[in-house]
Amino acid sequence: MMGEFIFFNLQESSKLLAGYITLVEKEFGYSEGEGFYFEDDFYPLLEKENSRNAFGYYEKSNEKIIATIACYERKLWIPGLKKFLNVLIMGAMTVRGTEQGKGIFRSLMERVLIEKKEFDLYLLWSEKEELFAKFGFKKMFKQTIVPKVGDDLPADKVKNQGWILEERFAKDWDKETWSLIRGAFQKRYKNNFFLDREMYWNKIEKMPSVNVGILKDGKNFIGYYFCGKGKDLPGIVHEWGFADEQYETEILKLINQQYTIWDYPFLCYKNLVHAYPSFAALGMIKNKDILKILPTELFIGGVDSL
Q1: Rg, C-alpha atoms of the chain
Q2: Exposed (0-12), middle (13-18) or buried (19+): which is 292, by Cβ within 10 Å?
Q3: Residue 257 backbone dihedrals phi, psi, to 5 degrees
Q4: Virtual CA dihedral for 299, 236, 224, 248, nearest 10 degrees?
Q5: Sign of the alpha-carbon dihedral angle for 60, 64, 66, 70
Q6: 30-86 pLDDT, tens per residue?
Q7: How far apart (Å, rounded) are the C-alpha atoms in residues 223 and 217?
Q8: Domain annotation for the chain: domains and CATH numbers
């Protein structure tokens, strides 16, 4: 069966990019005319610089894409050890509908894991725990959702607090603003396990479908939040950071009136009582030494969870 299909990556077979995206969008429920595009929502995954990590099978006779798995190389910061571990994020996992149930996905997954065998930790997002358990993946990091609790954010309430809120797409903010965002992120998450952003910020800054909200107290920067990612995480705030923690709970309550909040296990605010379990990251650990130091909480922002 597999003799009919050719294994490839997009760096070596760049002419297959359009067909690759078409298959992923079809299997992920993207529809023409919606105005959403997978390559925008998951920009770092399918950009040219990462093409060597976008794998798949195509049919030998007509070069039709049959299956896809795209990966992104990241590093996980371990605060106690003050070191990074090599992490592979896996996404864009599809098999053409007519070819499902034939063992193609298993074959491709095994091939990709061989190609990318040098990592300490492998992470992906899926509710299909039984499927990925066959490859050694287990539920690792639970997430929760805090549903929207009110009507649209009242403009006068923000004004009365002296706060100014402005949203733009990530790509539309200037470098000075991004410098403030980076600082707030580093302050907020410096003592937590998180996927390193040092080499990744420039990717986030270019993302055309992520809304970034900026809050100011007059002219002073208070903090930021990331909301949505095109068709992925619609209307969900999936990351935030504040220059001063005294603002945090009150601003989150305001944001929660307008948006659903993707919360994290170590963020336990008394005022955000509507949280319920949502989904979890599935992980496979190759480096067994890290089992002793991995947390039960891991910060994975929506822009990180490819």
Answers
A1: 20
A2: exposed
A3: -75, -25
A4: -70
A5: positive
A6: 998 889 999 999 999 999 999 999 999 999 989 999 999 999 999 887 776 677 788
A7: 10
A8: 2-140+281-292 (3.40.630.30), 145-279 (3.40.630)
